[in-house]
Design goal:
alpha+beta, 3 domains, three-stranded mixed β-sheet
Length: 440
């Protein structure tokens, strides 16, 4: 039976339903049930062989900010312990499922299930939620009192725990290779022979190993994380989106539809963490939980997007205005793009926001409201130039006026174009308009 290399028609037909199921999970706005969340987290920690953590609930980023502003970050992290950078449950299940499918089929299912869009949505939600906290962590870390160590009193122990956590993952990777168990056993035996041999091993093997670029990159990443909490701020959903860990939607489909063998308890807990617990960030001694937003809107590409209101809103009053994944100020976000004004572009200093305004307003309205200059005309087509510097490079437009309806449509063309006829040729993939007219 294994590995599976093709889908039956019935299995194939169910992919879209699983995408819709997990899209609903990603955009869910129903408040979490705290008792159910507590039970799920406690069982999950027990299944991972860890002691029961304290659980800290927040209704949104503003409430979390208020909580952290009243406490010293270094002391808080000492109490919480190190973050769990990967969940063993996810890695275990992913390894089991991968071993039962052809790699090509797994890629095909992932693409048709739109896992990339689902992962983007989860990561964006986590980033939006945690960014205010990451900024607060960064500020507090940079303002540690002078009588503390350079990294603060918490950093040496946390750094050691993070290093040990990564060494455990490297050990597992070594053991998965032919002869890996023997290599790990020899290393452990050498350490047991005593400090002199252990130090020799440190000097001859471990120290050179830590000089390798990929290991140094990991250490630098960890240092940056501990300094700004930027990586930790992504939440577990983002941290588990690695090449080794399959998205829960993909695991769900493979387990339920393809009937892949798996560890039932591990899947029960991981699925519950994904569907019932909102946004979580697990530490060794603490698990931070955010309630679901009360409003959540996204476009088909998994980017937060809403016109005329907040794309994301939490019960504590936090709002995020987004236009196809770009954060925009409230002054733009509360107004529908249909009534955005073209002259806002003249006063907007941020280049990214200008691009959003251009996209929302559209070139049709821009050429009318900004009194674009006509450079050349050919039949019902006009080459226009918008004089105000509202983008990185000058805006040249090919305007077409429908003779029967009077409807105006404008398309942007490169600023190097000199005539309306040349612009038509560029729009039609280098086909001359006379030839295009004959073919039509």
């Amino acid at each position: 039976m294994w590995p599976i290399d093709t889908l039956t028609p019935i299995q194939d037909a169910q992919i879209e339903a699983f995408f819709q199921r997990w899209l609903a999970v990603s955009c869910a706005t129903t408040p979490i049930e705290t008792q159910q969340v507590e039970q799920t987290i406690q069982r999950s920690y027990a299944l991972m062989g860890k002691r029961q953590p304290e659980i800290l609930f927040f209704s949104g980023p503003l409430e979390a900010q208020a909580y952290l502003q009243e406490r010293r970050i270094d002391q808080l992290l000492n109490q919480w312990g190190v973050p769990l950078l990967t969940l063993p449950l996810a890695k275990q299940l992913s390894h089991q499922v991968r071993s039962q499918l052809r790699a090509e089929l797994l890629v095909e299912i992932s693409e048709r299930l739109k896992v990339a869009e689902l992962a983007t949505l989860s990561q964006n939600l986590s980033l939006i939620t945690w960014t205010p906290l990451a900024e607060l962590f960064a500020w507090n870390t940079q303002h540690v009192e002078e009588d503390t160590a350079p990294w603060g009193g918490w950093s040496p122990s946390l750094w050691d725990q993070l290093w040990q956590q990564q060494q455990t993952e490297w050990r597992q990777a070594i053991q998965s290779q032919p002869g890996g168990d023997l290599l790990v056993h020899v290393g452990e035996t050498l350490w047991q022979w005593g400090e002199p041999v252990g130090q020799a091993l440190e000097d001859a093997v471990i120290h050179p190993f830590r000089q390798q670029p990929e290991v140094q990159a990991w250490e630098q990443g960890m240092q940056q994380m501990l300094t700004t909490m930027g990586l930790v701020g992504m939440g577990w959903q983002a941290l588990t989106q690695t090449s080794e860990v399959l998205h829960p939607a993909l695991l769900d489909y493979c387990i339920e539809v393809l009937e892949c063998d798996h560890e039932p308890e591990a899947w029960t807990q991981l699925r519950s963490l994904s569907t019932h617990c909102g946004l979580i960030l697990p530490f060794e001694q603490m698990c931070v939980v955010f309630d679901r937003p009360i409003q959540c809107h996204a476009d088909p590409e998994g980017r937060f997007h809403y016109e005329g209101g907040a794309a994301l809103q939490f019960a504590d009053g936090y709002r995020s205005y987004q236009f196809h994944g770009v954060q925009i100020p409230e002054r733009y976000g509360t107004v529908h793009p249909h009534v955005w004004k073209a002259d806002w572009l003249i006063h907007e200093q941020n280049a990214e926001l200008r691009r959003v305004l251009i996209q929302g307003i559209g070139y049709d309205r821009l050429c009318q409201e900004l009194q674009a200059e006509a450079l050349n005309t050919w039949r019902e087509y006009t080459l226009l130039r918008i004089s105000p510097a509202i983008d990185v490079e000058p805006i040249y437009l090919l305007k077409m006026t429908c003779p029967s309806t009077g409807y105006i449509h404008a398309t942007r063309v490169p600023p190097s174009i000199q005539s309306a006829r040349e612009a038509i040729r560029w729009v039609n993939w280098d086909t001359d308009p006379e030839e295009f007219a004959q073919e039509s």
